[in-house]
Design brief:
The chain contains 11 helices and 7 strands. It is α/β, with parallel strands linked by helices. It binds S-adenosylmethionine.
């Protein structure tokens, strides 16, 4: 089994995605989507951005490596009566089922940053984009003090080191790496722009209950807890995460959780 696929089919990312819907909608509002625009949402999960793209009239193909999330996405689209979005399984490192120059816009929000082989991913995204089209990526930033970068950092302290040759997903949060990867795919540096943006996670429960959602349903955190349990360190990991979530909660209540997280928004013109 492909470990990248296994990681995201583990648990149920929908439980976390449910807490990201508002920011997903808001981000999509700013993408300049018009009726009939051909959009590829890559690493789409169950459609946090793909469904809002379709609601704005785009013709959306959502591709994800996790079979359970593809199924969840198609169910959500049907429940909302959206006929112009389809979810299908695929791997961003090899989009062989897609033709060259097929899409006006490729969107990948915290999606393809998790695929191994980042140079192949950049090449494939450029290949399927029409000349004059755009690629928009959302990438978490290594060592950033906000939520997701810190969850991944804390989790990595409890998991075995990455195997040799494995490229950290967080490396997509460094501008120089982004430029190197797209340059190798034939895109000059002048056609790549960067901005800091914010995604807010809203959960209708306490910060500790929100940690439990990650512990039980978010692949990377589930793996960290499995490794920590083997070393008798699960309580320590739980405490570190609870402190993080509690200190970053901006809901104004201890009963609800609202945490903003900073990410790097990358726009590439092909
Ligand atoms: C953090 S989730 C984000 C999902 C969605 N974009 C959202 O904002 O809710 C990462 C997603 O990337 C997908 N993914 C990871 N590696 C992938 C790959 N190689 N090809 C396609 N999708 C991938 C995972 O299955 C997962 O759905």
């Amino acid at each position: 089994m492909n470990p990248n696929k296994a990681l995201w089919e583990k648990g149920d990312f929908t439980r976390i995605a449910e807490t990201m819907r508002e920011s997903g909608e808001m981000l999509v509002q700013r993408l300049g989507i018009t009726k009939g625009l051909k959009v590829l949402d890559l690493g789409s999960g169950d459609g946090t951005t793909a469904l809002p793209e379709a609601k704005l009239g785009a013709d959306v193909l959502a591709v994800d490596i996790a079979q359970n999330l593809v199924e969840a996405g198609n169910k959500r689209a049907a429940a909302q009566g959206l006929m112009n979005v389809k979810f299908q399984e695929g791997d961003a490192i090899n989009l062989e089922q897609l033709s060259d120059k097929e899409f006006d816009l490729v969107v990948t929000i915290f999606g393809t940053m998790f695929a191994p082989k980042p140079f192949d991913v950049a090449k494939e995204m450029v290949r399927v984009t029409k000349p004059g089209g755009r690629i928009v990526m959302g990438n978490w930033i290594p060592n950033d003090p906000t939520l997701v970068a810190q969850i991944l950092k804390i989790s990595s302290n409890y998991t075995p080191p990455l195997p040799e040759g494995f490229v950290s997903p967080m490396s997509w949060g460094i501008e120089k790496n982004v430029i190197d990867r797209f340059s190798a795919a034939g895109i000059p540096k002048e056609k790549i722009s960067f901005a800091r943006d914010t995604f807010t996670f809203n959960f209708p429960g306490t910060p500790s209950e929100y940690v439990d959602e990650f512990r039980n349903f978010y692949g990377p955190t589930m793996n960290a807890f499995e490794a920590a349990e083997k070393n008798g360190k699960a309580a320590e990991l739980q405490k570190e995460l609870e402190e993080l979530f509690t200190s970053q909660n901006q809901s104004g209540s201890t009963e609800r959780t609202s945490i903003p997280a900073t990410f790097l928004r990358v726009t590439v013109t092909v």
